[in-house]
Write a structure and sequence with these properties.
The strands form two sheets. The chain has a seven-stranded mixed beta sheet with strand order 2-8-7-6-5-3-4, sandwiched between helices. A five-stranded mixed beta sheet has the order 1-11-12-10-9, with helices on one face. It starts with 15 loop residues before the first helix and ends with a helix. Helix 4 packs antiparallel against helix 12, helix 5 runs parallel beside helix 12 and helix 8 packs parallel to helix 9. Helices cover about 45% and strands about 15% of the residues. The chain folds into three domains: about 70 residues, no CATH class; about 250 residues, Type I PLP-dependent aspartate aminotransferase-like (Major domain) (Aspartate Aminotransferase, domain 2, 3-Layer(aba) Sandwich); about 100 residues, Aspartate Aminotransferase, domain 1. It has 14 helices and twelve strands. The protein is an alpha/beta fold. Strand 11 and strand 12 form a beta hairpin.
């Protein structure tokens, strides 16, 4: 059989790796030269400069005659790398946007080459078995005392939270078909996807409780749930283990007690903080997690996976019954009865990637202790940054970090000046910091997710901010 040209060769089969190898050399070279040209955490010049560079390098996007595979890869990958926000740079610390492990990225390449589609067993025989084994092992970390914990693979915290609300809504409908709609109670610290999912699912606007210290106050929650005693519908209390703004963790045991006392369903969004389960040092901060009906996890945050790597953990498969769906061309009843696994009922998506492969490779390679060590290192870096801020005469620290998020600002700086400092560093391409608004005003946010960040990197980051601070 003749071998197709490189541009039309397929990635799978016995000839696929041979076709991929020279193309990967081109990609890796382009990633290197692009990062060298960028020479920092972000391309300088702002949106207009980046858009112009992309347009000039890539025009025309759809030529009448192609440039060939190597030229196209070299041009576009170099351009993307030169114009990227690089989370591996220790001064790129704005968001929950992690630098992926090279190991996990290599596994993701294999997933792309094999291209299993996780909507029927005959499209993904081994991948479906791997997903079942790996997702259940991770669910067992969340629910160590459950008989058969399980987890669905999602695109991240937003989809996990949406599924949690959907399962709560459907469980309530099944248990109390004549009751009123599900009423969600959450904190002002909750991720925006709680409100957005309620809207998407046709549920009432969540009752949002104040979180003046960044977390839910049990007394406030108790009063709210008690006042809802006359509500004709079911209740869902949501808590957060790792808020987006500060990394704070709600008082999970107390909230679990309140949910049980008021007969409310309990969901915990642990998309950020769930990875503490890998750490012997920090796992106790998640006490009470196993008392939730559903838990969101996200390993493309403190798990160092390429996007996407989310999960929704549940204590048993019965929780997932509302997702049951049947289509003859994917999970015909007689196929399921004959023993072919039903994948369609494990997601709201149909076609989906085998995102579990990179997670499974990472777990196998590093083990729980290896991942826990990365978690410990990252949280230590956050405390080092907090120490540097507290020792600095011109900086103010918002609070000691719970996870890896540190809020700070130059002392006496106005909110307007602070926003300008952040944008100036972005446009110059020298540092990528986030912003968080609390009851005490605007703060710069450093979300540290690089486990290899050194104290000198953090000192330089503070120096960059200080250089833009008006005196």
């Amino acid at each position: 059989m003749s071998v197709p040209p490189a541009g039309t060769a397929l990635a799978g089969g016995t000839h696929g790796p041979r076709a991929l190898r020279p193309l990967l050399d081109t990609v890796l070279d382009a990633l290197t030269t692009g990062a060298e040209d960028r020479a920092g955490p972000l391309p300088p010049g702002g949106p207009d400069a980046v858009t112009r560079a992309v347009r000039d390098a890539c025009h025309p996007i759809l030529p009448a005659h192609g440039t060939g595979p190597h030229a196209a890869l070299r041009t576009l990958v170099h351009t993307l790398a030169a114009g990227a926000a690089d989370p591996a740079d220790p001064h790129c610390a704005a968001h929950l946007h992690c630098p992926p492990l090279a190991l996990a990225t290599a596994a993701d390449l294999a997933a792309a080459a094999l291209n299993p589609s996780m909507d029927s067993w005959d499209q993904a025989p081994a991948a479906s078995a791997l997903e079942a084994l790996t997702s259940r092992a991770l669910a067992a970390l969340v629910y160590p005392r459950a008989d058969a914990p399980d987890a669905l693979v999602t695109t991240g915290g937003t989809e996990s939270n949406q599924l949690a609300l959907l399962l709560a809504r459907e469980a309530a409908t099944t248990d109390h078909p004549t009751a009123g709609p599900l009423q969600i109670v959450c904190g002002a610290n909750a991720h925006h996807s709680i409100h957005r999912s309620a809207w998407l699912l046709g549920l009432p606007e969540p009752l949002t409780l104040p979180t003046p210290d960044g977390t839910l106050t049990p007394d406030t929650v108790h009063t709210c749930l008690a006042n809802l005693a006359g509500h004709t519908g079911p209740l869902l209390l949501t808590a957060t283990a790792g808020t987006t703004d500060t990394g704070a963790i709600d008082p999970l045991p107390a909230l679990a007690d309140l949910a049980a006392h008021h007969r409310a369903r309990f969901h915990i969004d642990a998309a950020y903080g769930g990875a503490l389960l890998f750490s012997d040092t920090h796992a106790a901060a998640l006490d009470g997690l196993d008392r939730a009906h559903t838990v969101s996890l996200d390993l493309h945050k403190l798990g160092w996976q390429p996007v996407a790597a989310g999960l929704l953990a549940v204590p048993g498969p019965h929780t997932l019954t509302p997702l049951t769906h049947q289509a003859d061309y994917l999970n015909a009843d007689d196929d399921t009865e004959a023993g072919l696994p039903d994948l369609l009922s494990r997601s709201l998506r149909t076609t989906r990637r085998p995102d579990i492969l990179k997670i499974a490779v990472t777990l196998k390679a590093l083990g729980r202790h290896g991942l826990g060590d990365l978690v410990d290192r990252t949280l230590t870096a956050a405390h080092t940054l907090a120490d540097l801020i507290e020792a600095h005469p011109h900086y103010e620290l918002h609070s000691r970090p719970t996870l890896s998020t540190v809020l700070f600002r130059p002392t006496g700086t106005t909110d307007t000046a602070l926003a300008t400092i952040r944008r100036t560093l972005l446009i110059d391409g020298r540092a990528v910091l986030g912003r968080a608004t609390t009851p005490t005003g605007l703060w710069l946010k450093a979300t540290l997710l690089n486990p290899h960040t050194q104290p000198g990197d953090l000192t330089t980051l503070l120096t960059l901010v200080e250089g833009q601070t008006p005196r």
